[in-house]
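Good morning C.,

I know you're traveling, so I'll keep this short. The sequence:
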Amino acid sequence: MSKQEVIFRDLGIMDYKTAWDYQERLLQENVRKKSLVYSQELVVIENQLPAPDSELQTQHYFLLVEHPPVYTLGKSGNIENVLINEEMRYMKGIEFFRTNRGGDITFHGPQQIVGYPILDLEKFYTDIGKYLRNLEEMIILTLAEYGIEAGRSKGETGVWIDADKPGKERKICAIGVRSSRWITMHGFALNVNTDLGYFNFIIPCGIQNKQVTSIEKELGRKVDFEEAKEKVKRNFEKVFNTELRDEKN
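The tokens, ready to paste straight into the viewer:
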């Protein structure tokens, strides 16, 4: 199977709403292209010229970004998992958004790698479960490069350490996605040198009595953030059988 080309863009530090709007534009453009493809028979019937093939091809993107402090709540999430009131959030400089992704409450902030793949899954496989498992695998492989043994927790999306040891389970990467016409958006958040104190004001992912961790906490030292991003990129290419083409935003 030939490799899919994916445009890679490092958005640097960007506020959550701007990045969300940007994802939506990319997703909707791909959905528009699919609609053109599906309407080609009608176009021909009406004796109109079909759009050039290049205008009908959906484009894959892989975005990496670092957000200022923000809590985001998934569409099926429970607001009661937010343990901090609006005034306290304002004082601490933490934004809050209700989103259209899956999952519950999570935190994004400095020194956390947030990844947003905008993929046309019809060019890979039409299986959201498999897509989520592949996102997890990409992170598991990345952590293995640091000597961190991570895996999955049954019934709980994301990447965990010691998931099978009651009382010691700790989540290192949250995952929540949205799909429209098999075009994906939203994605994952890997704690690198993240200030984990922000998680004290929420029940992360709505899961009680389980810890959150980071690469820094597991290793007992800070790691090079840019190096971590390169590892994620390389493992994305490996797991999804793609070739990233770096492009300035």
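Safe travels,
E.
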